[in-house]
Design goal:
52% of the residues lie in helices and 10% in strands. The chain is α/β, with parallel strands linked by helices. Strand 11, helix 13 and strand 12 form a beta-alpha-beta unit. Bound molecules: arginine. One of its GO terms (cellular component) is cytoplasm. It is an enzyme of class 6 (ligase).
Length: 602
């Protein structure tokens, strides 16, 4: 049996798949509570194992002793000093393959050195099987993201939802969860009364001779103009919504036409961004709304207010409106029904809604109402991920010069155009040679990747200033820098194969030949072993920024490694090439989870 198997037995089920930090933490937690059984009741919850800030002290550090000493002070059998508290923890550690040596500082810090054999075996595993996801309970998850509105242009807010949602879905799927990627498009709102009515007015023969509308924005604007100028038109529009929602065939026909046009436009953006969604728009829930309201009423949650049916909730000043005064249903009715469908019909135990932060209270009200109605089992997670605003250079909401919302397709085109220009510049300077086609493909890949990465690396809740210059910078924490780092890595392996005649395939088949020695190699190796810790954190806070931070750190550790350690032509060539390979597979996994493709050459 390998040392890893021994470890798994010794630590009673603590799996290394839990990630390096999580494994160490679990082991030190166990040792701490064994050495100091009263720690838990004294309020100590964790042994606080972290990576050492200064590598010279150790690889990892356990910082629990000081807090432990303070918490137990004065009690029976309390430690005489932080150092004594720490020493007892060390004495309680089980035999295990991770820890090589420990040393306790006078202040009670436990510095931990990992066993070289453990590090090497773990890196070999990464090369053999790829970076492993954390071991987690498998759940059924609805991710409600993108969700633009029919007949309206998708704006940068929808871009954020689309990019963040796609990354979260990919991470969830990688961890083995069952994921429903729902596009909750706004296809049933009051805007349709106006649009259908305008269609009837402007194109009376629309049924036999449908107009060729490719630009819905113009159509929308014209309809809105009519709506704003005429009371009569307004009244007619309101009636039309009621007609549509009660199934009038002519209305349905126009509605279908409008939805189809929009859908095609949305799909263009999804194709470019390599995003997959399943449409479950507002209209999908329409027939199920009355029974939802009945269920809420049976649970005693519905009351009458000025002719409307509402649900009042403890922590909110205004209620959910489940049936409007005119008998119609709105955003709240639809979302309550969507929650019920997701929990009861799809049997999901995790719902994640991704919209701008402005909708946070709407989502939390719906979640609270679902809980109050008794629809939510224990262990089910209902989460809203509210993101910040994308700002223009003036610090105000991102708009075009003329004040219109920025069209998503234009924005993506511009990123690609600028990237193409910068590649051309490098070619002109003789810094790179490639074919025209390859240059164009790289520009598109990096351009889209740069837009995505610039968004994902921010904490979701922060607002950020949109800047092509910053997102396309070759230095700093950008997609472009990461692509360069990856290409550098790939070129080392390529050179080994082409110029030094290393059989790279055979090399990868013997990953056990890796031997991590140099300080920079160790620093890189630890980073590699933190991968599943990061994936876990990424889902715990619904923050793809965690993964971006990790990828960036990995790239910088890799750069340090190749700067400080010669790879090609050195005595350690085999091992170092293997370390490059382990870094490569891990980087590529991060890229793909973030919705980007790693390039081998730039
Ligand atoms: N269509 C909405 C908007 O553009 C977002 C919908 C989000 N999902 C939901 N279930 N409410 O703001």
């Amino acid at each position: 049996a390998s040392t890893i198997d021994t470890f798994t037995k010794a630590s009673k089920g603590v799996s290394l798949k839990a990630g390096l930090q999580a494994s160490l933490l679990a082991m030190f937690d166990a040792a701490m509570f064994k050495a100091w059984p009263l720690a838990k009741s004294a309020g100590i919850t964790s042994s606080s194992v972290r990576k050492c800030a200064d590598y010279k002290n150790g690889d990892f550090q356990c910082n629990a002793a000081m807090a432990l000493f303070k918490a137990l002070k004065g009690g029976d059998g309390a430690p005489s000093s932080p150092q004594a508290a720490a020493s007892a923890i060390v004495a309680s550690l089980p035999v295990n393959p991770l820890v090589d040596t420990t040393s306790v500082s006078p202040q009670g810090y436990i510095n931990i050195r990992l066993r070289p054999a453990f590090i090497n075996q773990s890196i070999a595993k990464v090369i053999k099987n790829g970076p492993a996801p954390p071991e987690v309970k498998k759940m059924r998850v609805v991710v409600d993201f993108s969700s633009p509105n029919i007949a309206k242009e998708m704006h940068v807010g929808h871009l954020r939802s689309t990019i963040i949602g796609e990354a979260i879905c990919r991470v969830l799927e990688f961890c083995g969860h069952t994921v429903f990627r729902h596009n909750h498009v706004g296809d049933w709102g009051t805007q349709f009364g106006m649009l259908i009515n305008y269609m009837k007015e402007a194109y009376p023969n629309f049924l036999t001779d449908p107009p060729n509308i490719t630009d819905l924005t113009t159509f929308y604007k014209a309809a809105k103009l009519r709506f704003d100028e005429s009371e009569e038109f307004k009244e007619a529009s309101r009636n039309t919504v009621v007609d549509l929602q009660s199934g009038d065939p002519a209305c349905k026909e126009v509605w279908t036409l409008l939805c189809d046009i929009s859908r095609k436009e949305f799909q263009k953006v999804y194709d470019r961004l390599d995003v997959t969604l399943e449409e479950h728009g507002e209209s999908f829930y329409n027939d199920m709304i009355p029974s939802t309201i009945d269920m809420l009423a049976e649970a005693g949650l519905v009351s009458r207010d000025d002719g409307a049916d509402i649900v009042r909730l403890e922590h909110f000043t205004y209620p959910l409106i489940v049936r409007k005064r005119d008998g119609g249903f709105g955003y709240d009715s639809t979302d309550m029904t969507a929650i019920r469908y997701r929990l009861k019909t799809l049997k999901c135990d995790w719902i994640i809604g991704i919209t701008d932060a402005g909708q946070a209270s709407h989502f939390h009200m719906c979640f609270d109402a679902a809980r109050a109605a008794g629809w939510v089992d224990e262990g089910t997670k209902l989460e809203h991920l509210g993101f910040g605003v994308v700002l223009g250079p003036d610090g105000k909401k991102f708009k075009t010069r003329s004040g219109d919302t920025v069209r998503l397709v234009d924005l993506l085109d511009e990123a690609v155009r600028r990237m193409a220009a910068s590649i051309q510049e490098r070619m002109d300077e003789g810094k790179m040679t490639t074919t025209k086609e390859a240059a164009a493909a790289a520009a598109a890949e990096i351009g889209y990747g740069a837009v995505k990465y610039y968004d994902l690396r921010q904490h979701p809740s922060t607002s950020y200033v949109f800047s092509y210059d910053r997102m396309l910078d070759t230095r700093g924490n950008t997609a472009v820098y990461l692509q360069f780092a990856h290409a550098r890595l790939a070129s080392i392996l390529l050179k080994a194969q082409d110029e030094l005649h290393v059989d790279v395939t055979a090399l990868k088949a013997s990953p056990e030949k890796v031997s991590v020695e140099h300080e920079s190699e160790r620093a890189l190796a630890f980073e590699l072993l933190m991968f599943s810790d990061v994936i876990e954190a990424c889902l715990a806070d619904l923050g793809p920024n965690r993964l971006c931070e990790y990828l960036y750190t990995l790239a910088t550790k890799f750069t340090d490694f190749v700067t400080n350690c010669r790879v090609l032509g050195s005595d350690e060539q085999t091992s170092r090439l293997l370390l490059c390979e382990a870094t490569g597979v891990t980087m590529r996994k991060c890229f793909s989870l973030l919705g980007m493709k790693a390039l081998d050459r730039i």
